[in-house]
């Protein structure tokens, strides 16, 4: 199950509108892959298609060589975990109950959570630094706390693939860094394949192994971040001038600018 | 979340104990009070009163339970604390459907079929009207519900204005709800519908828990989203139809009871659905007792009592949502 994720010819859309227009890529076992692109480039749709929650999609999605499309829903949910961009909650729910939802695909029907489920949820809350908030109402948490609670729910799912849709978009710099730190540590421990959508390229470059650039439902570039990161690909992806520099550790950094025509 | 780790069985037992207490109270009070003492003596008047009040209380409890469990499930499914069979127009559709069936000569016990057709049509229409780019819009939902209710009231009005007298049920019965004509056969029939509809909803409770965060999230956790939605809408329509065809429109119970149960016992749907049913039953039983007591010996329509309690409740809930 630790083998790679392979996507081929993936198309998806809503109604008559096409959001993904033939995407191919492979993510090796344990890779942390950032997915960057403008708003509306298809990042969310790509994650939803892999999670199986998009209305219609065609193409191949293979995990460890097996086509996960044919898997029963719950088996798929045990292998692929998805954290939506929205963390809106209307009804009060304790952080603990929220995190326990991650155990749903592992539990049959009407059964109450087992002791093992509770332990796994506690461990996930500890990893995401929300154990102290376990009995708090998740609707009353700050944005950063709530993001970490949802990350804990995803961890509790114990899946081989984690799909995260712009988990830091609404966070201030401090909470953003805290979140990324927690994510990086959790990834280092469990070694899942992470696909993580962001529109902040530098955030992606700071922690990702690989980078996928999407534009209008198609892949512009894909590859390891420390390899060749061509300014041209970035310029095409974001329709703006881009310059790539490297810091002392050799990590690339991108500066965007308006081309002076 | 206040500490609510009470055992599920304990919470459900507590809720049903409240329902039982309310039922005993409602059987004893009325224009002529009843005492255990007189019943034990075998007093014929007391026994006659008991045989009148028991089916009435049973029908009230069944009505409240059906509407409340439907409301609780709809609230979770739609992630909307204002969802309720009355506000969504389902009860109105059911009343109009049942009225049409009775108008064309169906017996009172067969009217649930007409009510179900009306409830299903109303649910479908209101949901379609409240879609905005594929998503349910709260404002549209409320507006569509109000519009549907106005339409169905007009249908009922039209039917009964154009019909000669002597119909078994009056216009007021459908529009304001009444328990005055409760019969044991009706209570038993409602119990059957409640067992089917309530059982279906209970079976979806674990999935409904996941809907509380959102549809996509539920789907990603392995829930068959479309099947669950179809099932909940169908079961809610069935329950609203059964309750409405025997008692008429009783509004706001599906809104109030789940909120009270949620406050007392938390929001885990596996516990909330049965607790809401008990709370709804107790609510309508008490509302009925009140309707008999307030202007005794005259009676107020049960729907008027629940609306008087329900409207302030609705406004409170609306403020919290927006």
How does this model look, in words?
The complex is a heterodimer of chains A (261) and B (322). Chain A is built from eight helices and twelve strands. Chain A has helices spanning 43-51, 73-79, 95-100, 115-127, 143-156, 173-190, 201-207, 231-238, and strands spanning 5-14, 17-27, 32-37, 56-63, 66-67, 80-83, 161-165, 193-198, 210-215, 218-224, 241-246, 252-257. The radius of gyration of chain A is 18 Å and the shape is globular. Chain A starts with a strand and ends with a strand. Chain A is an alpha/beta fold and 261 residues long. In chain A, helix 4 packs across helix 5 and helix 5 (143-156) runs parallel beside helix 6 (173-190). Helix content of chain A is 31%, strand content 30%. Chain B is mostly helical. Chain B has 13 helices and two strands; from the N terminus they run αααααββαααααααα. Chain B has helices at 8-28, 36-41, 44-78, 90-103, 111-129, 138-162, 171-176, 184-211, 215-220, 225-247, 253-265, 269-293, 302-321; strands at 131-132, 135-136. In chain B, helix 4 packs antiparallel against helix 5, helix 5 (111-129) crosses helix 10 (225-247) and helix 11 packs across helix 12 (269-293). The two termini of chain B are 21 Å apart. The model of chain B has no long low-confidence stretch (mean pLDDT 89). Classes of the chains: A alpha/beta (261), B mainly alpha (322).
Short structural summary:
The complex is a heterodimer of chains A (261) and B (322). By secondary structure, chain A is an alpha/beta fold.
